[in-house]
Amino acid sequence: MARAREPIGEGPACDADHPRPSGRPRDAALDEAIILATRDRLVRDGYSKMTIGDIVSDAKVTRPTLYRRWRNKFELVVDALDYGFRKQSDMYTVDLSQLEPLDALVEAVRRVDPAYYNPDAMVLMGNFAGEAFRTPDLLEILRKHAVEPRVTLIEKVLSELQERRAVSADIDTHTIATMCFGSYFAAFYRGEQQKDLPEHVVAVLWPGIVAKPEITRRRSGDRAGPGE
């Protein structure tokens, strides 16, 4: 994932005059321990309140161990987010063409659930929304790698259903996709059960988007007359 503009962050080196130190080969197990500790702190404390000290304590590593890998908190958080994005990337490329049209849309809506892979995703997204003014790059990363792939999945499935002539050709796929994604946030903030949300959302949408059978109406003048 391309790194966003780097803001000044917590750490001993936050500019181009202090390149990331080189040294012994990196231990993948330590990398993952630090990343997982970072993701946990993002949920519990949010970006602004989490500290490098808390992360190294949770991961049971030293500060030098962390700073050999990341120069500051922002770079660490970018990689912690990328870890999650890579884990869930396959869910956006699923082939739903073999399912019945309504079932395909239900499954697509199920997969846009922010908590489909990570049960803490709603809290994380809320935390990053709160950083919109302090650290806008974080929200932009989230928008690009967590929001757009989800709504694009819905748009893609709807376009495929249009090609199959299962839904109307003139529906607004962008708005429908946005509504499907937003329904999870509405349910979360209302404290409602989200287990059957995909079925409920599609049940409401489907009558308005399903392709209507063409009815051939003959004009009275086109009807065959007697003796023809």
TrEMBL record:
- Residue ranges annotated as coiled coil are none
Give me the stretches of Basic and acidic residues compositional bias.
15-26
Listed GO molecular functions? DNA-binding transcription factor activity; transcription cis-regulatory region binding
UniProt-listed Gene3D superfamilies: Homeodomain-like, Tetracycline Repressor, domain 2
Give the UniProt keywords, A-Z: DNA-binding
Q: Which residues bind DNA?
A: 51-70
Q: Where is this region: Disordered?
A: 1-26
What PROSITE patterns does this protein map onto? HTH_TETR_1 (PS01081), HTH_TETR_2 (PS50977)
Signal peptide span: none
- SUPFAM superfamilies hit by this protein: Homeodomain-like (SSF46689), Tetracyclin repressor-like, C-terminal domain (SSF48498)
Please give the name of this protein. Transcriptional regulator, TetR family
